[in-house]
Amino acid sequence: MSESPGERPVPELIDDRTAGMLRAVAEDEVVGHIQYLVLEAPEAALAPVHTIVDPGHEGHGIASALAAEFYATADREGLAVAPLCPYVAQWAQRHPAQAAPASEELLEAARVKVAEDPSLW
After folding, report:
1. Which pairs from 55-63 meet CB under 8 Å and 24+ separation?
2. Domain of 44?
3. Which of 36, 52, 67, 103 sits 20 to 30 Å CA-CA off 80?
4. Which UniProt key words apply to this protein (predicted)?
């Protein structure tokens, strides 16, 4: 984590695949996260369902950093992304070079998985 004088620390982004969470951590505190699920079919993919930033940390680019890292992680692992989270979907539209669009089939598979377990949504 780094910081400049008078600025907030830059959060460390930590992926916890078992918990389905990409967390932003600053000064040992989770200040934001993307909750996601893993899909195996119709192709291997990650599907973000929520992006949350603590109110005291909003407006500092944390959600954008989380979305960018989420897509970068998927890209490094050769996985597609099925963005169910409205924030991540909007981020992807604004950053098409970093965020390949998901097929409707993949998005539907993610919606079905969430419907099977509403606690994910």
Report:
1. 56/31, 57/8, 57/26, 57/31, 57/32, 60/8, 62/11, 62/24, 62/31, 62/32, 63/32, 63/87, 63/91
2. 10-114
3. 52
4. Transferase
